[in-house]
């Protein structure tokens, strides 16, 4: 009976601990005077989304033999799409800072897409169900679409 | 299930819980550090972030699973 109590206690500790440390509870500090809030926020999310990607891929790599094939394939798709998209988001921020045709709205939209992807990665790392897989793949796809819009050539309407 | 089996299960669960807590704590620290950053990254920090990304992307965990 003591072992059963210990077992239940450990499970409860895990649940409470995960809730306590959930990163979405964090509120960012105000940006310092003279700093560009768009850049600061974008860099924050570029940093944390890279970490969330790393956590997810390392989890799949370490537990591959015991995970469903569908989960590994979903993470493979994330591996293939997140890398170029993350790099492209870095380039877009560089262009924004150098005033090379990337608007404030473009960067904010990209930052929001990266933040959605990182949340989906953390959720997928926590529970490998079909819904979490679909959410994560959708988030990566939307990130890519945002970047495509950014680099899409202007539509030229031919004059009659 | 015998008491011995329950005790073993409890130990396994405790080890997994401890590992999960360490991971959750690390995630919290990384997110907290980013949330507390009020300034743009310095050029050195910016270069460090790119270098870290290249290490992550080149790691074995970042390669296709082949499944």
Helices and strands in order, then pairings?
The complex is a heterodimer of chains A (160) and B (67).
Chain A: H1 2-20, H2 37-62, H3 69-97, H4 104-126, H5 130-151
Helix pairs in contact in A: 2-3, 2-4, 3-4, 3-5, 4-5
Chain B: H1 3-35, H2 43-58
Structural descriptors:
heterodimer; A: 160 residues; mainly alpha; 5 helices; globular; B: 67 residues; 2 helices; 0% strand; elongated
Number of strands of chain B: 0
What is the overall shape of chain B?
elongated
Termini gap of chain B? 36 Å
How does the major sheet of chain B shape up?
none
- Which shape of chain A, going by the Cα principal axes? globular
| H and E order of chain A | HHHHH
Radius of gyration of chain B: 20 Å
Low-confidence stretches of chain A: 12-21
Average of pLDDT of chain A: 84
What gap, in angstroms, lies between the N and C termini of chain A? 86 Å
Q: Largest protein interface?
A: A-B, 57 and 42 residues
What does this structure look like?
The complex is a heterodimer of chains A (160) and B (67). By secondary structure, chain A is an all-alpha fold. Chain A is built from five helices and no strands. In chain A, helix 2 runs parallel beside helix 4, helix 3 (69-97) runs antiparallel to helix 4 (104-126) and helix 3 packs parallel to helix 5. With 67 residues, chain B is mostly helical. Chain B has helices at 3-35, 43-58. Helices cover 73% and strands 0% of the residues of chain B. The chains are: A mainly alpha (160), B mainly alpha (67). At the A-B interface, helix 1, helix 2 and helix 3 of A face helix 1 and helix 2 of B.
């Amino acid at each position: 009976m003591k072992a059963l109590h210990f077992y239940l206690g450990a499970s409860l500790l895990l649940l409470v601990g995960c809730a306590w440390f959930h990163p979405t509870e964090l509120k960012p500090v105000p940006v310092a005077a003279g700093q560009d809030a768009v850049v600061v926020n974008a860099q924050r999310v570029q940093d944390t989304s890279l970490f969330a990607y790393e956590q997810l891929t390392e989890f799949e790599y370490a537990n591959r033999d015991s995970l469903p094939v569908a989960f590994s394939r979903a993470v493979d798709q994330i591996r293939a799409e997140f890398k170029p998209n993350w790099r492209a988001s870095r380039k877009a921020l560089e262009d924004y800072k150098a005033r090379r045709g990337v608007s404030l709205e473009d960067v904010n939209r990209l930052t929001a897409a990266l933040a959605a992807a990182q949340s989906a990665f953390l959720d997928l790392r926590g529970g490998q169900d079909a819904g979490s897989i679909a959410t994560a793949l959708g988030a990566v796809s939307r990130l890519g679409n945002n970047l495509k819009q950014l680099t899409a050539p202007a539509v030229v309407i031919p004059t009659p | 299930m015998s008491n011995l089996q329950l005790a073993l299960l409890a130990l396994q669960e405790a080890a997994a819980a401890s590992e999960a807590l360490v991971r959750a704590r690390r995630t919290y620290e990384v997110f907290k550090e980013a949330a507390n950053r009020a300034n743009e990254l310095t050029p050195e920090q910016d270069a460090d972030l790119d270098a870290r990304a290249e290490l992550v992307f080149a790691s074995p965990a970042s390669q296709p699973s082949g499944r």
